[in-house]
């Protein structure tokens, strides 16, 4: 992950009080190890609990309008963008007595060769870990980010947004009370359910991810492992799949799949409804057409069974025993 630009502003607000914005005038020193440590922790936690979506079509928010302007401005508009969207955030917070303020962290990040704009809201509950000096918010020490401190967050994939792809926007999906939903409304974020894509991503991950050892130090075959995951997802959780629950059950680590997905560039929500056809491919492929039906395990794709690249009406099956049986039927 490369941090290209970052700035921190502070929106001060106590419960039932009015918000007050403390602006930074300058971006952070990206050579500062404290800065790098902060963003690594923020990004790692954010990646563990994500929902994907788009900007809402029903409301053209101030944030969305300024984001478009920021993308279309040739000169460096990062600082201006971060400052221009905060008054609207303040107004939304003021309208909700139970809302609380926090440090609003804007950053331009490059990860897996993709450019992102990220916004994090961090609340400092253990002490004054940020300070205001020379018209700029400063980081005083390496900050440990935990679930309570990363209150809200969003990330926009700039390339995907420019190319009008789906699910270019992602946001923290941890349960929020009504007083915290102003953040999602401020961004204009709308969740976008993609059952087929999420299930396919899970299937691909399970075909590649490390298989854990059992209590006796033995490791399942990939086929046995896929069947175990299939049974867990189809029988235990019914249609709703929670990645943290699957990770906890199999690896004894609720973040294992999410960390793998983040480190390998997979787009997958932390909770989604399973596409049953895609999920069944963990156990076997079943293809039927032209009065021909083939059932085979996933690992045969591209190895024993694959379409001929030169002729679109030929499928190659490499199996001597199958060929012998076919000849015997003639």
Characterization of this structure:
With 330 residues, the protein is of the alpha+beta class. The chain contains twelve helices and 16 strands. The protein has an eight-stranded antiparallel β-sheet, sandwiched between helices. Strands 6-7 form a two-stranded antiparallel ribbon. Helix 2 (62-72) packs antiparallel against helix 3 (78-84). The protein is elongated and about 85 Å long. Mean pLDDT is 86; it is low at 142-147.
In short:
By secondary structure, the chain is an alpha+beta fold. The protein is built from 12 helices and 16 strands.
Output the helix-strand order.
EEHEHHHEEEEEHEHEHHEHHEHEEEEH
Describe the global form.
Answer: elongated
Number of separate helices: 12
User: Over the alpha carbons, how many angstroms does the gyration radius reach?
Assistant: 24 Å
- Structural classification: alpha+beta
Distance between the termini: 60 Å
How many β strands by DSSP?
Answer: 16
**Largest sheet features:** 8 strands, antiparallel
Give the amount of beta strand, in percent. 25-35%
Q: State the oligomer.
A: single chain
Helix share, percent = 25-40%
Order of strands, widest sheet: 2-1-4-5-8-9-3-10
- Total domains, how many? 3
Mean pLDDT value: 86
Low-confidence stretches: 142-147
